[in-house]
Amino acid sequence: MRKYKQVDLDLEWLKTVKELPSRRGSHFEYNEQVLERMNNNQCPSCGKPKDEWTRRRDWACCSKECTAKHWSTAGVFRSVPSPQMRDNRTCVKCGWNEKDFSKLSFDERCTPGAWRSLEDDHIRPIALGGDEFDLDNMQTLCSECHKIKTKHDVQQWNKARRLLIKWASEDLLVGGESDSIDET
Fold it and tell me: Is 41 within 8 Å of 150 (Cβ atoms)?
């Protein structure tokens, strides 16, 4: 079984950024024609200019028909790898798996907290510089362990945000690295 991993805030990485990254919005790789239409404010499916659309202009396409065509043919979907098969559908922290649950009696199954789902977790959160599609940055956790790790990740993210605000107010990010950065 793989070893459970939890990372703390990487201060060296944090010193190199001015704002925390966000999750990438798209898992699609578009062909050049679709990209050109999107960059020119046109419907990616038929090429109709946005100012001629009869529907909202913040939507992806000019009509329901074009939307259906666009999502079915315009891009090649990049499947996001799942660590669950690699981790034998077992939580890498506590060892819980669905096979163990199926061995429980009916009464044991009905107790609170007995059922857990398996979830994919990013070891280094995307918001703290982790790669969204790297299988080496992913692990399988049960829902209970994932809640605990997410709480830790949120604390790390808040720490990073506070440090970025502090460093920006001290003008340390403008000049690059500084030896006088206080981590508290």
Answer: no
Amino acid at 116: R
Mapped onto helix, strand or coil, the DSSP state of residue 76 is strand
Contact criterion met (CB below 8 Å) for 9 and 153: no
Q: How many CB atoms lie within 10 A of CB 140?
A: 27
Give pLDDT tens digits for 122-145: 999 888 888 877 889 999 998 889
Give the chain's domains with CATH numbers: 11-24+84-169 (1.10.30), 31-77 (no CATH)
CA angle 44, 32, 43 (to 5 degrees): 10
Taking only the tens place, the pLDDT of each residue in 97-120 is 877 777 777 777 677 666 778 888
Count, residues in the chain: 184
Residue 165 is encoded by which pair of tokens?
A: 């605000």
Distance CA 27, CA 13 (A): 25
Q: What is the pTM of this model?
A: 0.57
